[in-house]
Specification:
Blueprint: H1 2-16, H2 44-48, H3 56-112, H4 123-153, H5 158-217, E1 227-231, E2 239-242, E3 251-259, E4 267-274, E5 277-285, E6 292-295, E7 298-301, E8 311-319, E9 324-329, E10 332-337, E11 351-354, E12 373-381, H6 387-394, E13 412-415, E14 419-422, H7 426-432
Antiparallel strand pairs: 1-12, 1-14, 2-11, 2-13, 3-8, 3-12, 4-5, 4-11, 5-6, 6-7, 8-9, 9-10
Helix pairs in contact: 3-5, 4-5
This protein binds 2-acetamido-2-deoxy-beta-D-glucopyranose (3 copies).
Cofactor: Ca(2+)
Keywords: Calcium, Coiled coil, Disulfide bond, Glycoprotein, Metal-binding, Signal
GO molecular function: metal ion binding
């Protein structure tokens, strides 16, 4: 009974476009009809058939009810179409979800490719994209809220209204979940971008370290001994220096490859000065003199001649015992002698200079005594090498690094414009000489 009255009031209110109170209906009166228990009250239209209308008031009421019935039918149609809209929104949501998910996984795959690989093309761009997607979802959510507000103000039958309300709050829940997921995705994207940046930075740092290392050791050559020192000008400031000093020695062998066309004399291929004796060991070809070996400032003339502009391999051995020496050129022993600083021990702790003669340890060079040309494989041993070892080195069948001074890149510094360059292969030097 009361339910019917409320339903009718509601219908009336919808017709007049206002929310009406129980006593707000001016001049109109409604008749309440008894309804048998168990009758479906949700559709007021059903009840109209039971009204026995005879009076004009009843007639009027019937007409009103017929009009209301049409209105309700129209509203039913509206609801059906709104349900369609909801379905469509649902499917769009699902598509959007799938899209975002696949994009997320594609991005993750991108990241794991390799450390120096492509950076994410533009992380801010994709984050913006996500932001737009979220904004559009929020807009849709708002319009659905609006729809719900409109609907709850309207005059839908309570059952349908509740249904719609439930569907709408379901949808709202889904949207909120989706928005939360997108927020999560966005944060993850930020994190991944940060992690990627970190990895890139680490890789760059290790590359930088490696480059610095390479620059330090300067091992730009195939192997550390495959280089030569070029001293192109006769100056008192171009030179090379061996970082290692010599121990005290009672014998030595010194070998090297030389290429020079300087005249008169190729100058000083190397000199070893110690405190108190600038000419502890010197190899020099000066003015019109032949090549000379100085040990403790004593002199021996060597039968060597290399100033033809081609590569030559030379070796000189010396022993304190009788001051005996040997001179080799291109693997052949061309001369020997004795009494060169006999019983003198070679003093330790001096400086080996390539290309200049020292008047004090490590300095006071004289341009007229400078070596002009190229020099390589300067090796020193603290013993006298056998002729067979020397000829094997000279004919390229063997390479022996010196045991007291090995020719390695890291051991040789150049100054004043002297340069290091890659060394021709041994056979090429051999063919040249
Ligand atoms: C809800 O009602 C307002 C005002 O009547 C109208 O502007 C708006 O378009 C309606 N919204 C929907 C989704 O029907
Ligand atoms: C992103 O990093 C922040 C802080 O490190 C953390 O709180 C958050 O949970 C991370 N988000 C994801 C999705 O991993
Ligand atoms: C190089 O010298 C070594 C030692 O004297 C000798 O055994 C070898 O046969 C030589 N090789 C060539 C190709 O001349």
């Amino acid at each position: 009974m009361r339910a019917l009255f409320v339903a009718l009031l509601l219908v009336y209110a919808s017709g007049s476009g206002k929310v009406a109170g129980a006593n707000g209906a001016k001049g109109n009166r409604f008749v309440c009809t008894a309804v048998p228990a168990g009758t479906d009250l949700s559709c007021p239209v059903e009840t109209t058939n039971r009204v026995q209308s005879t009076s004009p008031q009843e007639e009027e009421l019937r007409n009103t009810i017929i009009q209301l019935r049409e209105t309700i039918l129209q509203q039913k149609e509206t609801i059906v179409s709104q349900q369609g809209t909801i379905k469509e929104l649902n499917s769009k949501l699902a598509r959007c979800e799938a899209d975002v998910r696949s994009r997320g996984s594609a991005r993750r795959k991108d990241y794991s490719k390799n450390t120096m690989g492509d950076l994410p093309r533009d992380p801010t761009e994709s984050v913006e994209q996500l932001g737009k997607t979220m904004q559009s979802l929020k807009d849709r959510l708002e319009s659905l809220e609006q729809l719900r507000t409109n609907t709850s103000n309207g005059a839908f039958p309570s059952e349908l209204r509740d249904l719609l309300k439930r569907r709408l709050s379901d949808l709202e829940g889904q949207l909120l979940t989706r928005v939360a997921e997108l927020e999560e995705e966005k944060s993850q994207l930020y994190n991944e971008t940060a992690a990627h940046r970190q990895r890139t930075e680490n890789t760059l740092n290790s590359l930088l370290e490696r480059i610095t290392e390479l620059e330090k050791s300067n091992s730009a050559f195939k192997s550390p001994e495959d280089f030569k020192v070029a001293l192109p000008l006769r100056t008192n400031y171009l030179y090379g220096r061996i970082k290692k000093s010599l121990p005290e020695m009672y014998a030595f062998t010194v070998c090297m490859w030389l290429k020079s066309s300087a005249s008169p004399g190729i100058g000083t291929p190397f000199s070893y000065g110690v405190p108190g004796q600038a000419n502890e060991i010197v190899l020099i070809e000066w003015g019109n003199s032949p090549m000379e070996l100085l040990v403790n400032d004593k002199v021996a003339q060597l039968p060597l001649s290399v100033s033809d502009g081609r590569w030559h391999h030379i070796c000189i051995t010396w022993t304190t015992r009788d001051g005996f020496w040997e001179a080799y050129q291109d693997g052949e022993r061309l001369g020997t002698g004795e009494n060169l600083a006999p019983w003198h021990p070679i003093k330790p702790g001096g400086v080996i200079i390539l290309g200049q003669e020292q008047d004090i340890v490590g300095g006071r060079f004289d341009a007229t005594q400078a070596f002009v040309g190229e020099l390589s494989h300067f090796n020193m041993w603290d013993r006298v090498l056998r002729p067979i070892d020397i000829s094997a080195m000279a004919n390229c069948s063997a390479y022996m690094p010196g045991n007291v001074v090995p020719w390695v890149d890291a051991n040789v510094e150049v100054f004043g414009g002297a340069t290091k360059a890659a060394l021709e292969i041994c056979e090429e030097r051999l063919f040249d000489s």
